[in-house]
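#struct-pred

JT: dropping the chains for the assembly here, can someone run the whole complex?
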Amino acid sequence: MHDPLDNGTARAIWRGQFPRPANRQTVCVQGLGFVGTAMAIAVANARDEIGEFLFDVIGVDLPTPEGQSKVDAVNAGKLPLATTDEELVQAFETAVANNTLTATTDPCAYQLADVTIVDIHLDVIRGEDGQPTVRFDGFRKAMSVLGQTMRPGSLVVVETTVPPGTCEYVVRPTIAEALQERGLPEDAILIAHSYERVMPGKEYYRSIVNFWRVFSGTTEAAADACEAFLSKVIHTKEYPLRRLHATTASETAKVLENSYRATNIAFIEEWGQFAESVGIDLFEVIDAVRVRPTHSNIRQPGFGVGGYCLTKDPLLAGIGARELFGIEGMDFPFSSRAVEVNAAMPKRSVEILRQQLGSIHGKRILLLGVSYRQDVADTRYSPSEVFVNTARAEGAEVVCHDPLVAFWTEQMEHLPSEIPEPHTFDAVVFAVPHREYQEMDVTRWLGDARPLILDANNVLTEEQRLTMRQAGCPMAAVGRGNH
Amino acid sequence: MHDPLDNGTARAIWRGQFPRPANRQTVCVQGLGFVGTAMAIAVANARDEIGEFLFDVIGVDLPTPEGQSKVDAVNAGKLPLATTDEELVQAFETAVANNTLTATTDPCAYQLADVTIVDIHLDVIRGEDGQPTVRFDGFRKAMSVLGQTMRPGSLVVVETTVPPGTCEYVVRPTIAEALQERGLPEDAILIAHSYERVMPGKEYYRSIVNFWRVFSGTTEAAADACEAFLSKVIHTKEYPLRRLHATTASETAKVLENSYRATNIAFIEEWGQFAESVGIDLFEVIDAVRVRPTHSNIRQPGFGVGGYCLTKDPLLAGIGARELFGIEGMDFPFSSRAVEVNAAMPKRSVEILRQQLGSIHGKRILLLGVSYRQDVADTRYSPSEVFVNTARAEGAEVVCHDPLVAFWTEQMEHLPSEIPEPHTFDAVVFAVPHREYQEMDVTRWLGDARPLILDANNVLTEEQRLTMRQAGCPMAAVGRGNH
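RK: done, full complex below.
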């Protein structure tokens, strides 16, 4: 690590490299992952009433090969993530063209920051006792760096999804310790929490600037500063900010949101199995139920739950209760059960294949879709991974395709660019409702092949289903028992 | 039972007793409980475009003392249920004044019916193996009566909440058997299913005529007949009907709705406990989360779940799977867990009192609210019952009050008409958010008494809370840890 420079020097050095108007505030974004990069772009596009840019944004990542490559990409004017959102691409280009966004692996950048937004990862792992836990080491180190470098009066906004209690029991004391070592008051840096509600896909950028924000501060002053900052970045007239009384409250709000979602998904799984068994169409039933405003959030059965958030966030409240508040026996049975049920869901599709084909050993299966969400290339914690590993372990040969994924990182697997011909397969599993699949001319694609068709995620249109059934394909579907 | 009369005779006899225009259809409502009575009133108020009444309605109940008293009430022009809904009262009076609603315990009435709506109870009990089950005996007998009496071509609409599969495996065969004994084709009576979504309270009547209806038939003809009938009673222009492909599907829709609701209530319970433990206000958090349209159905922590539906309906799908479809191991873990969690919820309030008072043995507790819902007199399966029984078993002296309940049937207990003075109580539990409690002048009511105040159900307004806290009352609340 660099020695902390006095701020005037650092700022001057920085300005020398990247000359900018002096009236702008500097915002660092710590961590250039999916959220951090998009957030950096949003802040770099914020303008005042007369259209002047408000912030100089510096994306900061670790000097690892991965971090360096993201930093290099940003500085070369290349977006360091794959996206289908044109608006995000354009906003990135605007920021680059106007020199409001740069990136570095040099933590000295934090010395320049009026605001640092924390967007680093905090993964859930299994502890030695089998309980879920988080490893705070890297997170604590990152907070230390902020405490060692940021100026008095500057603001830290934690955006990472964390166990409730983290701002109070990890962020605050870690920064306080670093400040004390600098001879500064332990509350010299303001600490706030405000979580993102980013939704990957075509409206990625909008889900940052056009969405309700919840925030809080460890002090009133911190909450005030966070509110002032967010008001410049988010369209708060249409999407008013919501201030909570404690950082633990807003941390809880975030994990509650995702726990609620995950539980609703897991809840419906049992009904999907029931529908398959008794010969009804649960999608039809759910359409009827959803008409009620009190039931509009009800979910559909499907292939499984993926992504970085829903697979782990429902465990964070329990981790916070046990590890940060020292509460025994608060096990959040619905939330933790939801994570288990959702993780096992892709195995249900394997089971249906087993029932329909007798055994899947030696059978050739075509899996269509490996990302975790429709029309998105993100394969993190994708249910397809569980499906593929389970089916291959049982001796099936699985060929995968995804219109948005050429190389499947998690499986280290190159995927074909075209949808494979169905002739050599015993079964075809439609796993992700990508537009390309829903627009397929299935008659043409099938030719004279008649594999078992498993619609594992309500992918096929009614017309596609009817066509394949009439062509004589054996049909099965998650959540549907009437074919 | 009467011998089935030939239909012409019966109709003539009936007309002789209650002369009516001959162009109206006759509708029987089987079972004059909360739902049946309201449904009978709604049908008896249905009119055509020029304002002519469409149906003669006959409410039919069993010749038990309870059934007879309801029948006598209707025929004497007295509404046989307590309600705060003025519109329901007026609609009843309109029906009585226009002679479109009568009642009887005589099953011959079904001979006159073009349509019979089934609104009899089907309770969930614990079987010998500890598993939840329903006793179909009474229900089967009721279906037999319809098969023995109703005319060929007439329609049965099952409105009772039943285990999925009931129309197919109980109603249809039972009616078919009775028809065969009459020498009639086994499908001579049309069988449909359409569930109600009645909501007790001030909009009871509207929740019948102004609400989306789901329906289905065991045959297309039955579904068509049901659709034609419902279109005359429900305001289907604003609230379109939704037809499902199987009676099992619409039976499932009903129990799914209530299972979803019950699970969402149970889910939030763990978060309420967490909030109490870590010192945050979960209501504030939930307000922030509910802003998202995808999270608008999230529930609040509270005192418990009561009423006839949410306490049992989540068990019906499992019962249907096991007993009607013979599926093993389909245990609906979320839905059945929800019933358990919700049933135990009032004990949480007892626990909070125990924590705050040390022990509740010998303590005097005032419980405000014994009905299961605000501004409603219905005490069926009220959480207050669980609270009272638990607290009394631990040696507490519990005095109860409810502005809408003078005699608490389930506890065989007369309640005071005024809210008791707080002076002699160690704790006051606000359990039901009746308007009378939310409009209390708490300063005046408290006087110089300073009992522990437990807001168990988000009853108190912020002002009331603040007033009592400032007055020096010890405060506690379900779902709130920051007092």
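JT: nice. Residues 1-13 of chain A have pLDDT under 50 and may be disordered. The radius of gyration of chain A is 25 Å.
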